């Protein structure tokens, strides 16, 4: 069957996408091929990191491509909360403001606080205005596709590279929709372990142990869906043949999968191939520029386990304003913001905010933050060559650690002790100096970069921090 494609709108949007920025050769055509020729499943929850790898596009450009494509209406962006054990898409949201901080998987009975580093995944689905796919209407999917493609991540794997969906299918005894006021009967053999019945639509679950010491061949189990759960006749199950009568007396469709889980299979966390995490997305300058209205709702915020934070400030800015006047000084400060912003973007960071003459920026990796800091000193040195005197004098600090992503003053920001320490570390720096914390310096990639620079170790008492901290001063001159 030919895909239901809106050719006119697709061509208009692709032209708009081509003009959005300077792309590498054939990047747009690679996305166009996917939109035109990909099957329905390949256009549902697309992983931009995987797409970039497969199409030989850098990760940074692949993420930008999908963000711009979303902004102009080619794609929809999905914020998904994954169960760390089974890979179930526990919740899916169309915007950041509806994402909450907790994951609960009914199937695994697992509760966990969500982190932007780990189990908050961002994927992209083709807009139904561009091309209609079956996954836009999950109620019309076959029960197999609803369970194994719509709900469960095909990429969740366990030790040995075995996918969770394959394990589940190997243990499956029955799978079916049950329509309103319908009754169905299933019959199958069970062995020692557990009988688990689960409905991905309502989250209803039934669990019963299966004994192996006595084999029975005419066991009957009756289940009825009521008030959001399965109610049953209380029977002890043994290995042998089991007949299950299940009734749905409600006016809404339910579903059920029955699995026979042996006792030797224990729960473990799944592993996932690289995907676009919430942390990586919030550290994308393109996301911050294109989706300024995306904010975190509520007062809790979202946890980030590890984030590199960089602060800059100007030395002698008050004297600069006095010497050349407010208007000229403001223009210079604005120009220096633009120059530093380019360096931040070059090392895949994002500018969180400017505070007076200062910048706060974030990076995924500490080495990117340190390289950006070094690049900033070089950029400002070149910037000052256009003036008779050294007008802009930079001071920089870098620290890493856990933080909380929050909304402050209607924009995405970060809160917590890591932010405070990063600011205090920056306060140690003098003209053309970078200070980094011990946490940053202990990163191997950082040490490798700093081998060619003069690095001085010292201890500092930072305001609000009880113990002295080990810090490192990096001068702008190389060894």
Query: How many individual domains?
Result: 3
Shape: elongated
How much helix, percentage-wise, in residues?
25-40%
Tell me the fraction of residues in β-strands, as a range: 35-45%
Identify the CATH homologous superfamily of the largest domain.
Answer: Nucleotide cyclase, GGDEF domain
Number of strands: 23
Q: What's the CATH architecture name of the largest domain?
A: 2-Layer Sandwich
**What does the average pLDDT come to?**
89
Biggest sheet details: 8 strands, mixed
Written overview of the protein:
- With 479 residues, this protein is α+β, with helices and mostly antiparallel strands.
- The chain has 3 domains: 4-138, no CATH class; 164-261, no CATH class; 296-478, Alpha-Beta Plaits, CATH 3.30.70.1230.
- It has helices spanning 7-20, 27-37, 48-54, 59-71, 143-151, 164-171, 278-282, 285-290, 317-324, 326-346, 366-384, 417-428, 438-441, 444-450, and strands at residues 4-5, 75-82, 89-93, 102-105, 110-113, 120-126, 131-132, 172-178, 182-190, 193-198, 205-226, 229-232, 237-248, 254-261, 276-277, 302-314, 350-355, 358-363, 394-408, 411-415, 433-437, 453-460, 469-478.
- The strands form 5 sheets. Strands 16, 17, 18, 19, 20, 21, 22 and 23 form an 8-stranded mixed sheet that branches. Strands 8, 9, 10, 11, 12, 13 and 14 form a 7-stranded mixed sheet that branches. It has a 4-stranded antiparallel sheet with strand order 3-2-6-15.
- A hairpin with a 2-residue loop joins strand 19 and strand 20 (411-415).
- The chain is elongated.
- The mean pLDDT is 89.
């Amino acid at each position: 069957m030919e895909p239901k494609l809106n050719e006119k709108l697709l061509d208009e949007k692709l032209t708009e996408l081509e003009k959005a920025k300077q792309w590498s050769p054939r990047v747009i055509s690679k996305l166009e091929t996917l939109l035109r020729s990909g099957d329905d499943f390949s256009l549902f929850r697309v992983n931009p990191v995987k797409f970039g790898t497969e199409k030989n596009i850098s990760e940074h450009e692949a993420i930008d491509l999908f963000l711009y494509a979303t902004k102009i209406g080619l794609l929809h962006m999905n914020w998904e909360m994954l169960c760390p054990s089974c890979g179930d898409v526990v919740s899916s949201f169309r915007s950041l403001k509806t994402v909450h901080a907790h994951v609960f998987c009914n199937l695994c009975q697992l509760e966990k606080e969500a982190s932007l580093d780990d189990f908050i995944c961002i994927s992209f689905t083709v807009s139904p205005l561009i091309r209609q796919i079956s996954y836009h209407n999950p109620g019309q999917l076959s029960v197999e596709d609803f369970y194994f493609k719509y709900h469960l991540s095909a990429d969740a794997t366990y030790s040995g590279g075995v996918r969770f969906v394959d394990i589940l299918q190997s243990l499956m005894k029955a799978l079916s929709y049950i329509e309103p006021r319908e009754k169905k009967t299933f019959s199958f053999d069970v062995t020692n372990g557990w009988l688990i019945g689960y409905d991905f639509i309502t989250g209803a679950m039934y669990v019963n142990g299966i004994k192996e010491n006595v084999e029975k061949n005419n066991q009957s189990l009756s289940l009825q869906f009521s008030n959001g759960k399965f109610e049953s006749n209380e029977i002890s199950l043994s290995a042998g043949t089991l007949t299950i009568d299940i009734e749905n007396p409600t006016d809404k469709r339910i579903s059920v999968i029955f699995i026979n889980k042996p006792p030797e299979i224990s729960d473990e966390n799944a592993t996932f191939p690289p995907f676009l995490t919430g942390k990586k997305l919030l550290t994308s300058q393109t996301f911050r520029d294109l989706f300024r209205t995306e904010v975190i709702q509520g007062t809790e915020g979202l946890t980030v386990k590890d984030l590199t934070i960089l602060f800059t400030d100007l030395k002698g800015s008050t004297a600069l304003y006095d010497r050349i006047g407010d208007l000229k000084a403001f223009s210079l400060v604005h120009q220096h913001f633009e120059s530093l912003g380019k360096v931040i973007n070059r090392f895949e960071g994002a500018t969180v905010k400017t505070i007076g003459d200062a910048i706060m920026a974030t990076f995924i990796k500490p080495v990117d933050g340190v390289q950006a800091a070094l690049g900033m000193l070089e950029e400002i040195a070149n910037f000052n060559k256009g003036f008779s005197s050294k007008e802009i004098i930079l001071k920089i600090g870098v620290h890493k650690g856990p933080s909380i992503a929050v909304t402050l003053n209607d924009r995405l920001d970060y809160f917590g002790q890591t932010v405070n320490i990063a600011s205090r570390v920056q306060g140690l720096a003098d003209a053309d100096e970078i200070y980094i914390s011990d946490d940053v310096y202990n990163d191997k990639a950082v040490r490798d970069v700093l081998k060619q620079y003069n690095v001085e170790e010292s201890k500092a008492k930072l305001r609000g921090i009880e113990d002295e901290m080990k810090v490192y001063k990096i001068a702008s001159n190389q060894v």
